[in-house]
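Lab meeting, item 3. Inverse folding demo.
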């Protein structure tokens, strides 16, 4: 098995669970595999497909997903095809013949096509096993329910002897049980791997204004030149305004949301996969079809509505296992809007609870990864060291006076004001509402002038989380004092707040610091024998891009970023040594070895 792994995929060892899953499938037994995105699910059925006689049938929900998988298998020289409506009739006919002749090791197919082919193509094929990818699509509890999937239960009845392996990255228990029941898996073994993604850094920025978000995003992207990333926004119009802001700054950005035509969406996705744009500004509609392994970062412009969605979305970064960064902006306005959505949804209690958990994550002052993993039922005893809380543990100070000022403004305005006006009163701003309601006569008017508005935003969020006031969502989002808030206001209790750290200091120190940080981000987590050369990496990347364009394939299909980093460090100067790099199989060694080795030789002799 290890030999086949090295020969076809170029890897030297299995990841946790892969070998057990493969052995189980080769013993012709059913299985359900739960692994996070990027965990390495594909190998679990691709490798046994190579070891079995006949053809493995892989059910996949989206054409774009099939395309990516087929391309990367073919790039490894493995006989693979996808039967779908986007092929022309001739190529589908050729593929059908290859299938019946047993020349294809893996056949990708959509569920509806599969069902239609049961009396035809499937009858004439020698099927090794069925792999049901994205199996959570079968469950209404999941977030990607696809009615076509529910018919797949008939497979077990029609093909009682052929094993079924179902795979998903969605962990929750109801979905899991639903998959087993609906696919009628026979005494399946359930392989549940850790959902931790240690290569994803986690950072939250709280209470930023739109302008500050934009500045932070620009700075973030400039520190990662040419690194692909996704910016998730709550609304369609936001995706457009953020993309325009980036384009004005010369950053290649595309838009993706459900309001665009299918052609426009396909183009955006294709441009992203092929590195013609660096950034996609998208709603949650984007991502399911994205297997691009070198998405290096994900930003949430707005708070997501649940931890499931959040984890799914950040999971699109760093599938290749290299360090990748995630950044979440959290504001009171988002929280208010999402609460309203949850209240208006059919399942108010559940959705409010999900939002509350998301809010707790964003407000956390303990390791954020521990919160995420505990949400998925994995308890950790150690902090991760790769989240902002671990890196900069929050510092606290006695914020009693600050809290008293805010609460007093609220009470004096008879609890009839929302957060914006509260800040106007504290800052002493003469706005139309202040004039109309005569708030400038209040004793607290201007009492918080010494604190900038953006810090007030942050402090108000902290006070909300500490339970000093509540928001009356059904009453114009007015702020209402709570009993424990009253304790602080009337001096019977003290309040401790977290010190706010803002990045932007003087511009002089800024340039240098950022640059150092940028380099650190590029460094891979893996232990490399040599020291990686950044300029060699760039040269390798250019060569890869040239080869990709020639073959009309995405660059990461040719070689992954991880492979390029290793090449830049190990600098193999023979084709044999090139083939020893993890991730390079026989086929790629023969196909690309010469070009890359020549480049590395030239580079090392010039150095
Ligand atoms: P998933 O389908 O679970 O999201 P993939 O199957 O796409 O994940 O695998 C994620 C990445 O990990 C791919 O780049 C894949 O080639 C790589 N990978 C899988 N198995 C191994 C392994 N045993 N050793 C090294 N890399 C692996
Ligand atoms: Zn942490």
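The presenter then showed the designed sequence:
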């Amino acid at each position: 098995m290890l030999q086949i792994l090295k020969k076809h995929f170029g890897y030297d060892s299995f990841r946790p669970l892969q070998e057990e899953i493969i052995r189980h499938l080769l013993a012709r037994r059913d299985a359900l595999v739960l692994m996070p995105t990027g965990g390495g699910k594909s190998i679990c059925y691709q490798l046994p497909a190579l070891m079995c006689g006949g053809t493995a049938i892989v059910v996949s929900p989206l054409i774009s997903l099939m395309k990516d998988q087929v391309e990367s298998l073919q790039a490894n020289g493995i006989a693979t095809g996808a039967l779908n409506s986007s092929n022309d009739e001739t190529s589908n006919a050729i593929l059908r013949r290859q299938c019946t002749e047993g020349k294809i090791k893996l056949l990708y197919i959509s569920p509806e096509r599969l069902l239609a082919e049961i009396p035809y193509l499937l009858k004439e094929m020698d099927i090794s096993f069925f792999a049901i990818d994205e199996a959570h699509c079968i469950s209404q509890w999941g977030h990607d329910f696809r009615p076509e999937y529910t018919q797949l239960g008939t497979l077990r009845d029609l093909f009682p002897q052929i094993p079924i392996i179902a795979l998903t990255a969605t962990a929750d228990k109801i979905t899991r049980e639903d998959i087993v029941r609906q696919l009628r898996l026979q005494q399946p073994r359930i392989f549940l791997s850790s959902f931790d993604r240690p290569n994803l850094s986690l950072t939250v920025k709280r209470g930023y204004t739109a302008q500050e978000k934009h500045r932070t995003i620009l700075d973030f992207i400039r520190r990662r030149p040419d690194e692909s990333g996704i910016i998730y926004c709550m609304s369609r119009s936001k995706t457009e305004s953020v993309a325009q802001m980036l384009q004005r700054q010369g950053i290649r950005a595309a838009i993706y949301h459900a309001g665009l035509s299918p052609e426009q969406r396909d183009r955006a996705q294709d441009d992203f996969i092929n590195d013609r744009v660096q950034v996609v500004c998208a709603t949650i509609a984007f991502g399911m079809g994205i297997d691009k392994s070198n998405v290096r970062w994900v930003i949430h412009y707005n708070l997501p509505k649940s931890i499931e969605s959040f984890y799914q979305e950040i999971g699109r970064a760093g599938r290749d296992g290299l360090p990748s960064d995630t950044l979440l902006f959290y504001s009171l306005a988002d929280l208010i809007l999402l609460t309203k959505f949850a209240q208006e949804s059919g399942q108010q209690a559940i959705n409010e609870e999900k939002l509350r958990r998301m809010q707790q994550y964003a407000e956390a002052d303990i390791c954020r990864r521990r919160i995420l993993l505990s949400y998925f039922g994995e308890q950790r005893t150690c902090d991760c060291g790769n989240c902002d809380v671990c890196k900069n543990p929050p510092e606290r100070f006695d914020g009693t006076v600050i809290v008293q000022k805010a609460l007093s403004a609220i009470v004096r305005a008879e609890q009839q004001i929302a957060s914006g006006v509260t800040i106007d009163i504290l800052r002493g701003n003469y706005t139309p509402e202040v004039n109309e309601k005569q708030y400038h006569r209040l004793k607290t008017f201007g009492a918080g002038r010494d604190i900038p508005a953006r810090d007030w935003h942050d402090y108000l969020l902290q006070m909300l989380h500490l339970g000093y006031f509540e928001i009356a969502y059904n009453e114009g989002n007015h702020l209402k004092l709570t009993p424990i808030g009253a304790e602080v206001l009337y001096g019977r209790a003290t309040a401790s707040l977290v010190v706010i750290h803002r990045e932007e200091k003087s511009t002089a120190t800024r340039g240098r610091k950022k640059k150092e940080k940028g380099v650190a981000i590029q460094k891979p987590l893996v232990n490399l024998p040599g020291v990686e050369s950044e300029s060699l990496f760039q040269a390798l990347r250019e060569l890869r891009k040239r080869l990709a364009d020639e073959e009309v394939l995405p660059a990461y299909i040719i070689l992954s970023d991880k492979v390029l980093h290793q090449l830049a460090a190990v600098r193999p100067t023979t084709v044999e040594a090139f083939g020893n790099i993890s991730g390079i199989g026989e086929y790629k060694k023969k196909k690309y070895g010469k070009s890359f080795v020549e480049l590395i030789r030239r580079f090392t002799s010039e150095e």
